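Researcher: Next entry: DUF4245 domain-containing protein (Nocardioides baculatus).
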Amino acid sequence: MRATRLTVPALGASLVLLLGACGDDSSRAEDPAADASASETPSETTSSEPPSPEPVVLIDFGDEPAVDATYKDAALQAVGDKLITMVPSALPDGWTTVGGGYQAEPQWWHMEYTAPTGDVTLDQFPGDTETTIGSQLSVAPTGDVDLSPWGIGTWSAWDYKGATVLTHELKGSTVILQGADQDTVTDLAKSLIPAEDAPAQEG
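Model: Predicted structure:
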């Protein structure tokens, strides 16, 4: 096949020279632009659509509370039940909030987001880190993330089957953030504030 493709242009050039010797015939001349167009293959066409992020496996804590886009009332119910409840003040560009939800027994505050890198979740339970993720055998510590410049202290970083997990103990509870990579999850952590301080439009 390769040898055939190499001989076709040479044959075409010979015909053009022969026709030139016999006189111009524009109807039979080769069109370089047409040849270039014909040589293009569909695989060479580039798409302007960004690739979809690869889904990551996040820790499954069970049947999480149902989420609602207007989650402020649920967050304040969690606060009323003495669970220090964190919500985002303002999300990074390109993020959307799917919603949040709360269950009282056992206590569980849950939020879901969509980021450019994929799904991100926030979970908050009473108890310390050992209580909340200690039974997860696939969770491995990867160090600490200092977020004290944002007023939220130092967070512990973990790997869970390729996903990034950040945890932070807060007044008898543990906040757990999960996403595709550490930058994504850290961006969410930087945005968190107590629910009672959240903007009114969130609820």
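Model: Note for the record: The helical segments are 2-22, 32-39, 72-80, 129-133, 182-191.
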